Structure formats: C-alpha cells, structure tokens
Amino acid sequence: MTERVAQILISSFTKILIPGIKVTIPLTILSFALSLVLALFLALFQTANVPVLKQISQIYVWIFRGTPLLVQLFIIFFGLPSLGIMLDAFPSAVIAFGMNLAAYNAEVIRASILAVPRGQTEAALLIGLSYPQLMARVVIPQAFPIAFPSLFNNLISLVKDTSLASSITVVELFTTAQQIAARTYEPFALYCEAAVIYLIFCTALTWIQGAVEKRLVFEHKETSGSRRAIVG
Predict the structure, then answer these.
(1) Mean pLDDT confidence for 156-180
(2) In whole angstroms, what is the distance from residue 84 CA to residue 65 CA?
(3) What whole-number distance in Å separates Cα of residue 194 and Cα of residue 174?
(4) One-character DSSP codes across 76-103
(5) How many CA atoms lie within 13 A of 107 on its CB side?
(6) What is the pTM of this model?
(7) pLDDT classification of 225: cutoffs 50, 70, 90
(8) N or C: more exposed end of the chain, with fewer CB within 10 A?
(9) Angle at the Cα of 155 (from 150 to 158), degrees rounded to 5?
(10) 8 Å CB contact between 54 and 46
(11) DSSP code of 167?
C-alpha cells in the first residue's frame, strides 16, 4: 500500500463513518421498525384464517419476496412521481426497505406463531380469551423468543442492503465512499474501507444478538422451572 493510499484511507475513514452513523443507522432502524409493524399484521392475518385478509397477506408476501429490492426502490422513488406522488429519497428508501423486509419478517413471525403448542391456544380460548387477548397474552410472548434470531439476522442483512439507497441519491455510507473514490481515483481501497465499516456495524449487531439470545434462553429456563415447580 503506497503512502498516498494510506493517507487517503486515514482521511476518508471519518468522512465515510459519519454518514454511516447519521444516515445508514437511522435508515436501518426506521426501515426495520416499519417492517416489524407490517409483518406483525401480515402474520396475524394469515394465522387468523380470515379468507380475504389471508389472501391479501399472501399476495403481499408473494409480490415483495418475488421482485428485486432495487426495482422496488426505483418504483417508489422514480415511478410514483408519474402518479403525482412525490417522495424525497430518504423516506422512499425507508418505505421500500420496510415493505420489502416486512414480507420476510411476516413469514418468520407466522412460523413462530404456529410453533406455539396448539393446546395452549385452545385452552386460552376455552377460558374466554378473545383472539386479540390470546395473541397478546399467550401466543406472542412465546413466539417472540422463537422469532428473535431470524428477525435479528434480517436486521443485520438490512444494514448491508441499505447500500442500495445510493442508487436513489441517498447520501449514506456507500454513497460517500463512491464520491471520495471518484475524486481520488482509488476505488478499490475506498470500497474495501466501506466494507470494513459495514463489517464493524454488523459485528456489533452480532454481539448484541448473542447477548440477547443468552438472556432469552435464561429467562425461558427460569419460566420453565417455575412452571414445573407449580405443577409439582
């Protein structure tokens, strides 16, 4: 590595990191939050077995899982203005990422809900719980630990997918690396540096995931032990 390249990497690291903190991370958090809200409704629509709602949910999942995320970004940012709907780049990215990830998170949540023993749901209905009460008090608390690892993996994937926002002019981590590379003519070094920053973000999230999973396992063991003691 030449001295010039080293100096470019040192001076550009903060310039790339700051948009990562100010844009990439908020974009990830907002998109993931939107996806969770949509995914929960989509999963509940499918498990409630209400024909019309179930079909709508299935069609949504089919469309957003079956079409490229980049195409969805372009439809929202470049396509909607032709229908009179104007959105800035950042909210367009949040909507596109959130709606796309919702399709995947919905399947994770749906599978987790179905993994809860059917006997517990039947018992809850027998004692008079409504469907919303059943979900809030019995099913979701048990489904969450099952869904958590897959949901968090999707969050980590989303951090990397946000680089696609550069295609619709969102000035995030990767866009900044592209701009510096265009000025310095050192694309290889700068794109590697951007990759390292993404790796740092994803590694930090992986550590958080591991810590939370250990906590969930510990709480599950405590809960199971309490139940056995009560039964005994």
Answers:
(1) 95
(2) 26
(3) 6
(4) IIIIGGGGT----HHHHHHHHHHHHHHH
(5) 13
(6) 0.90
(7) very low
(8) C
(9) 125
(10) yes
(11) G
Calculate what percentage of the chain has a pLDDT beyond 70.
93
Answer yes or no: is pLDDT of 74 > 90.
yes
The CB density around residue 82, as the number of other CB atoms within 10 Å, is 7
Taking residues 154-159, what's their average pLDDT?
97
d(C-alpha 49, C-alpha 77), whole Å = 34
Which of 75, 83, 77, 89 has the alpha carbon at shortest distance from 23?
Answer: 89
**Domain range spanning residue 163?**
3-231
* Angle, helices 25-47/51-66, rounded to nearest 10 degrees: 140
Sequence-distant contacts of 58-64: CB under 8 A, at least 24 apart: 60/102, 60/103, 60/106, 61/103, 61/106, 61/107, 63/103, 64/99, 64/100, 64/102, 64/103
For residue range 8-54, what is the model confidence (pLDDT) as tens digits?
999 999 999 999 999 999 999 999 999 999 999 999 999 887 889 99
Q: Does 127 have pLDDT greater than 60?
A: yes
Domain count, the chain: 1
Query: Residue 35: which of 74, 5, 69 has the closest Cα?
Result: 69
Cα(54)–Cα(60) distance, integer angstroms: 10
CATH number of domain containing 80: 1.10.3720.10
User: What pLDDT, on the 0 to 100 scale, is given for residue 104?
Assistant: 98
